[in-house]
Amino acid sequence: MWNKPVVDIRVDEFTRGTLPAYLDLQKKLALPVLEQHIGRPMAFYVSVVGTINRVTQLWGFDSYAAFEAGRLAAEKEPRWAEYMVASEGIIRTPVSRLTRRISFPGIDEIAGRVHETPYVDFRTYLIHFNQMKVFLSTTEAHAMKVQLRHIGPPIGYYLTQVGKLNQITHIWGYDSMADMEARREARNADPEWRNYLDASDGIYERQDSHILRRLKLFAD
């Protein structure tokens, strides 16, 4: 599922103090329906640092058509209507965007089980208009080799296709926040990282970062 070309990134903002109730609703009502018609999610994450009281969901699809068919089938289920009623007062402002997975040469072969790391740095960059190709080529030529050296392979790169455009989200996994701090400091001290910073100057309009904790929703 991590190699699916289309990824729906959904962010649910929940009412303060209702995370246990939110997760209970997901496990008992929403996920059984979605698993039947769409399959299991790639991941659920809860915000730790950044905009809190949010759960970020990642769902993989083979195409836009598969997304449409799966969501429509789920929403026709009586159990889904029950979920919508039960979630009133818990879920406040859900936001969804469809993205295209970006693959870099050789990364998939070494990714292993990096997607199972308990913490992620969830980074969304707004790239200046018509500069996305430059960003991706600069990332491949300069950033990726240094990132691999100190941080490891990314969990994924996702280019927004439906939603706020000119955005790319990339996700990096860590064993802990201390692990993230140590790895990033080592990367920043690498002289080759300067090459990437210089090459990418003027490409970014805005950069946002959140630290999220992975939620394990299934026994296996």
Folded structure, characterized:
This protein has 220 residues and is an alpha+beta fold. The chain has two domains: 6-98, Alpha-Beta Plaits, CATH 3.30.70.100; 116-215, Alpha-Beta Plaits (2-Layer Sandwich), CATH 3.30.70. Helices cover 39% and strands 30% of the residues. The chain contains seven helices and eight strands. The chain has helices at 19-37, 64-75, 78-86, 107-110, 132-150, 177-189, 191-199, and strands at residues 6-13, 43-49, 54-61, 95-102, 119-127, 156-162, 167-174, 204-215. It has an eight-stranded antiparallel barrel with strand order 1-3-2-8-5-7-6-4. It starts with 5 loop residues before the first strand and ends in a 5-residue tail after the last strand. The mean pLDDT is 95.
List the helices and strands and how they pair.
Blueprint: E1 6-13, H1 19-37, E2 43-49, E3 54-61, H2 64-75, H3 78-86, E4 95-102, H4 107-110, E5 119-127, H5 132-150, E6 156-162, E7 167-174, H6 177-189, H7 191-199, E8 204-215
Antiparallel strand pairs: 1-3, 1-4, 2-3, 2-8, 4-6, 5-7, 5-8, 6-7
Helix pairs in contact: 1-2, 1-3, 5-6, 5-7
